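Weekly modeling sync, notes
Attendees: S.R. (lead), two postdocs, one rotation student

Agenda item 3: backlog of single-chain predictions. S.R. asked that every request posted to the team notebook include the full sequence so nobody has to chase files. The rotation student volunteered to paste the first one in as an example of the format we agreed on. Action items at the bottom.

Example entry:
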Amino acid sequence: MFDCIVIGGGPAGLASALTLGRALKKTLVIDNNNARNKVTQHSHAFLTQDGVRPEELRAKAEHDVDQYDDVTRINDTVLNILKEEHYFIVETANQQYKAKKIMVCTGLRET
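Predicted structure, as returned to the notebook:
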């Protein structure tokens, strides 16, 4: 069982996972690699990274997160979240995971 499952591996999800990893919380990051900003050429408003390409920002963030043994990142798609009495069950396209807490860091999509 994980302390927390972070859904979304973009800037918000990876920043959350980094903080949880530093706090020694067993964390799972689930991301399907379908970034909202995949057509964006430059990211802005990130301290020390203004104007950086989104792929570079993400690669650096993943590298930082991967330094923490308590954080695991997987490429998968979340299909459903069930709330049990004392934990959550996260169903993905490939497996089920249990966690005490859930963080949804998926951003938003324009229509």
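Discussion: group reviewed the output briefly. Residues 4 and 101 are 5 Å apart (CA to CA).
Action items: rotation student to repeat for the remaining queue; S.R. to check formatting next week.
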